[in-house]
Structures are given as structure tokens and as C-alpha cells.
Amino acid sequence: MSLGTTCSVTQRNELLDRRRKLEARITAYEHRISVIIKPDDDTQWSVQDGKIADIFPQWKQVSDDLLELDPDGWFTPEQERITLPSALAPGEIERLSLKSIAVIEAELRKGQITDALQGLRLALGEKSLCFRTQVRNADSQRTTHRAWDNVHKSDAEARKFRSTYRQARNALRRLNIDPGYVMTLHDITDDDLKVSGDLTDERRFGQRSDTLPWFWMTGEPVDATGPRMQECTVCICPLCVSSD
Predict the structure, then answer these.
(1) Which residue among 53, 96, 152, 241 is the one 20 to 30 A from 129 at the CA level?
(2) Which residues of 144-162 are buried (b: 16+ CB within 10 A; e: fewer)?
(3) DSSP 8-state class, residue 221
(4) pLDDT tens, residue by residue, 99-156
(5) Three-class SS state of 12
(6) Is the predicted pLDDT of residue 6 greater than 90, yes or no?
């Protein structure tokens, strides 16, 4: 949840309302999870679980005027740590006998990673499609500006999915449930989010699937003869190229 400095009063109020609702949901969750995990005064928390600020990199740009709209003071519940086994310091899962709960969280984190990588691939595919069909064909300053806005929007979506992926991967590392699976999860760099010319221009050579970032090679194999791929034959997007 974030707003730029040019947001309206209505938008600011909506943001504060959403944050208050989220805070209420987090409070209810913490009451329920405390019955299961039962942390005590000696419970140690991981210093690496951190916040999730990288998912919302623009939140610091919000105007300080929001403080005047919130009588209770500035708060960002989306930045707060949630009580989970992955948030505990090393050795605490065993001490509190939370191994079975940690296994459940690990499975949920795996699903989160799968969803994040799928969303990342789709966002990058949309980004490459915007390059090919909108940026290239823009014939005025207005259409060019709109085309690049769509590119930036897809890029922002991709970065959000990358942040979600990183959070889930770090949580799995702290849980230490399936190290073999964690070893298959690599970092996703800024270069991985770029759209290669080989992906947007069918006239360029070197369109080989092994030049794509690693996350294009994960998940279920793509059926090149399926209806979804048939719809993509007119564009050179990563989804199509990775199926070659």
C-alpha cells in the first residue's frame, strides 16, 4: 500500500482505511496464532526475517500530510512482522516443538513461490508484448507516453512478484525443511527483468531458450501446440520463446 506525494485527500483516507482494516486482520491473526505457537518471554526472533519494504518501494514517498489525517499517528501494518515459524531464531522451532507447523508453512511458502514465479513470467511476457505491439507502433507523443506507461506498469508488477519470491525463499531458508528444494531457487537480478532484443524482435538471431533466466525453465512444461501458444504465435514473448 503506497501513494505518491501528489495523491488526493480521498486517496489518503482510503489508504488509511485499508491500513486500519489490515491492522485489525493482523491483530486477529496474532491472537489465534499465539494459541498455537505459544511464544514465551524467552522466545528469540530472527534478525533476518525483516520487513517487507522492498515489495512497496514507494511507501517512503508518501506525503507527511497523512500524519495530520491519522490521529493515532503514522503506522504501516504491511511492514510489520507476522508471527510464523520462519520468523523465529535458529533453534526456536525445536525448542517450542513447532516442527509440524513449520512443515505446513514450508508447503505454503512453496506454493507462494510457484505463484510468484508464474506471475513474474506473465508480467515479463506482458512487458515484452508492450514493447513489440505498443512502443514500436507508437506514432505520436501521446501514444508513446501511454505505451511506456504500460511497460513501466508491467515492470512494477514483475518487481512485486520478485519481492514476494524473495520473501518466501528467505523464509524457506530459515525453516530449513527442504534444503534440496531451496538449492534450486536462485536469486532474480535486475538483469533478469530486462526484455532482451531476442525476445522482442523475431529478426534477431540467438533466440535460444538456454539464454533465458533460470525461472523460465521451471514449472510445468509448456505445450507448444496448445491454444494458448497458438494465440502467442504473432509475438515473440518469453512464454513463446521458452517453449521452443
Answers:
(1) 53
(2) eeebeebbeebbebbbbbb
(3) P
(4) 999 999 999 999 999 999 999 999 998 998 888 888 888 888 888 898 899 999 999 9
(5) helix
(6) no
Task: Please answer whether residues 163 and 54 qualify as being in contact, where contact means their C-beta atoms are separated by less than 8 angstroms.
Answer: yes
Does an H or E element contain 186, and which?
none
Name 88's bridge partners. 45
Return d(Cα 41, Cα 168) in angstroms, integer.
27
Higher-scoring residue by pLDDT: 15, 206: 15
Distances (CA, A) of 19 to 1, 48, 210: 8, 24, 43
Phi, psi for residue 16 in degrees, rounded to 5: -65, -40
- Three state DSSP letters for 60-113: HHCCCCHHHHCCCCCCCHHHCCCCCHHHECCCHHHHCCCHHHHHHHHHHHHHHH
